[in-house]
Each structure stands twice: as structure tokens, then as C-alpha cells.
Design brief:
alpha/beta, Aspartate Aminotransferase, domain 1, Aspartate Aminotransferase, domain 2, 2 domains, 15 helices, 12 strands
């Protein structure tokens, strides 16, 4: 746990990959960052980060914003006009964890297919698309989440994404990727980021999940759309001034912390394999850094489990009465994982 260990925090924190602390190297990069007023487009570190991320995803331009919720909502407004429709998974972040922002700020109607994580039924999605006219709300975009948070970090296969892209092209509608953890998908499946990027009109990527930056996301698209995105970001309160210090953290994260996600994936599999005998998780389905725990057959419910693990120095996330989640990240090393396994197995056996 570089710069952040059990002794300093007092816990092995497996609630989320957003709880990481900036390392010494990242803090130094932040302190030394060149800055300017980003509302005027004069912050050189932000400009460099935007160009770098756009190139990684194979697009013309990108825009830095404070959060993934903001970049998702900017992207949706770029693709779907007020009174038009978005299709997505029922458990998608854009309709589950963004507090109705698409409707509240974009006037966007949404319709969902049954939650299925990465196993999207492309034919079923195609059947949901409504053309303009006939007094029906016109479908304008499809959104997918890569990797899928509530599905336990599942990766949507490139084959399935290409099939969905063909459906969108035939219908003449757009595609958005909530790629908050697209870095994990890239590492898990070896698919180039640009290969993912070219399948979508817009992509949102996060620097504070897994990569260890303290804050920041980007929306990636064409130059024309990003010009429009600047206005939407300002309208949402996302105009920032000397924000190069945060952009420098993101740049450091991209340069140092993408390939090492494989370590998080390996530690997540170690957790899953240790807990699989208790019937809480299918270890073979854990391919990235999220371990979902189904406690329906356990003697402990999720809130009780979280309370007991906290008392023993391990933090877990409660997603429902019988659903918990463990997320590995760069601030938890092998020793932390073994401590967490010892605590969890001990409680499940008692």
C-alpha cells in the first residue's frame, strides 16, 4: 500500500476504489503543475490532459470536469434533446446513482432494459428503439457502462459492443459509454482504448476510480460536440479556474496507474476464491476489481457484516439488505487482502 497503509488509516478499506489517497509522486506533480484560468482555456496542464485522453480514446477532443456524473450528463445532453429518449440498463449508473439528473437538467426521458450487467441482449435492445413520429418519444441514444459497477465489475465484450453499434447505426441513433472504469476493461480484455472509443459518439472516463487521482473525469467526443460541452459544463456549474493541479494528478494517474490495475484484478480474484466456498460469489465471474457478495444464503445480513468487519479493521460497502461489495485498489496490498480474508472467513464460519 504505497503511501497509504493499514497503520496510517487503521482500516483495510474495500468500500470503493474512490477512497485512495494521492501518493507522494502524485502530490509532487500537483504541486509543480503549471496553471492558468481554465474558463478562459488558459490552463496548460488541463489542455495537455484533454488532448492526451482524447488521443487515447481515438477522438478529436475532450473536456475535463469535476465528476463522472457531470461528464455523463454532459454527454447525454450532447446526444439527446429535451423530450427525447435514452435507453440503458436498469442498473446503469446514469439512472441509478445520478439523482435523476438526465431528467432534471436535460429534460431527457429514459427507458431501461432488465439489469443484466455485461450480458446485454442486443436484439432486445433493438426492439426497444422507437423512431420519431407516431406520437411516441423518439429514441436518440443508447448508454452502456464499462465496466458495470452494480454487476460486479463485469466487462461488456467487444463483440457485443460492436453488435450494439450496428443496431444504433441502423436506427440512426447515438451511443454513449459511461467508461468510469473503462481502464479496468482495457486491462482485463486487452482491448485498446481507441478500439472502445470509436464505437461511441461520447465516452465519459474517470480518473478517481482505480487510477488514484483525488478528483476528475473527462467527456470525450468530436471537436464540435466538445465545443458545445463547454457551455453545458458551465451551465452545470463545472467551470473551473486554476485547476491544473487536479489535471496534473489525473495525468500522473494515467502515466503510472493503468497497467497496475492488473494487480487489483488479481487481488479481487484472491478475495473471490476465498469467499466462494461460502456461496457468496462466483469466483470465475470476478474479472476486474469488484467482488459482489450475495448474502441471501448467509447467516449475516449486509449491514451486520459491515459493522462486524469494521470492528475488525476492514471496511465493506453495503448495497442492500443482503448485498455487499468489496473493491480492490492501489491502497490495499497483498497483506491487506489477507487480513480482509481472515476477518471475513472468520465471521462467516462463526
Amino acid at each position: 500500500m504505497a503511501d497509504s497503509d493499514l497503520d496510517r488509516r487503521g482500516f483495510v478499506d474495500l468500500r470503493s476504489d474512490t477512497v485512495t489517497w494521492p501518493t507522494t509522486g502524485m502530490r509532487q506533480a500537483m504541486a509543480e503543475a503549471a496553471v492558468g484560468d481554465d474558463v478562459y482555456g488558459e490552463d496548460p496542464t488541463v489542455e495537455a490532459l484533454q488532448q492526451r485522453v482524447a488521443a487515447l480514446l481515438g477522438h478529436e477532443a475532450a473536456l475535463f470536469a469535476p465528476s463522472g456524473t457531470m461528464t455523463n450528463q454532459i454527454a447525454l445532453q450532447l446526444l439527446v434533446a429535451p423530450g427525447e429518449e435514452l435507453l440503458c440498463d436498469a442498473d446503469a449508473h446514469v439512472v441509478t446513482y445520478e439523482l435523476g439528473a438526465a431528467a432534471a437538467f436535460g429534460g431527457i426521458s429514459s427507458r431501461t432494459w432488465p439489469a443484466c450487467g455485461g450480458a446485454i441482449d442486443v436484439e432486445a435492445v433493438a426492439a426497444m428503439i422507437r423512431p420519431a413520429g407516431y406520437h411516441a418519444v423518439a429514441t436518440r441514444a443508447i448508454a452502456v457502462e464499462q465496466t458495470h459497477n452494480r454487476a460486479g465489475g463485469q466487462v461488456i465484450s467487444l463483440e457485443r459492443l460492436r453488435a450494439l453499434r450496428a443496431v444504433a447505426d441502423e436506427a440512426g441513433i447515438g451511443m454513449h459509454c459511461d467508461g468510469a472504469r473503462i481502464w479496468n476493461a482495457h486491462v482485463a480484455d486487452g482491448v485498446p482504448l481507441a478500439e472502445y472509443g470509436r464505437l461511441f459518439e461520447t465516452v465519459s472516463v474517470c480518473l478517481s476510480k482505480g487510477l488514484g487521482a483525488p478528483v476528475g473525469s473527462l467527456v470525450v467526443s468530436s471537436a464540435e460536440r466538445i465545443d458545445r460541452a463547454v457551455t453545458i459544463r458551465k451551465r452545470l456549474g463545472g467551470g473551473m479556474r486554476q485547476v491544473g493541479m487536479l489535471a496534473a494528478a489525473g495525468d500522473y494517474a494515467l502515466r503510472h496507474n493503468v497497467a497496475r490495475l492488473a494487480e487489483d484484478h488479481g487481488r479481487a480474484r484472491r478475495l473471490a476464491e476465498a469467499l466462494a466456498p461460502f456461496g457468496l460469489v462466483e469466483a470465475q465471474r470476478v474479472r476486474t476489481n469488484i467482488v459482489p457478495l450475495d448474502l441471501r444464503g448467509a447467516t449475516l445480513d449486509a449491514p451486520t457484516l459491515a459493522t462486524l468487519t469494521r470492528e475488525r479493521g476492514v471496511l465493506v460497502s453495503v448495497l442492500g439488505p443482503r448485498t455487499a461489495r468489496l473493491v480492490t485498489h492501489l491502497d490495499v496490498d497483498d497483506a491487506g487482502i489477507e487480513h480482509a480474508i481472515s476477518v471475513l472467513v472468520g465471521l462467516l464460519r462463526s
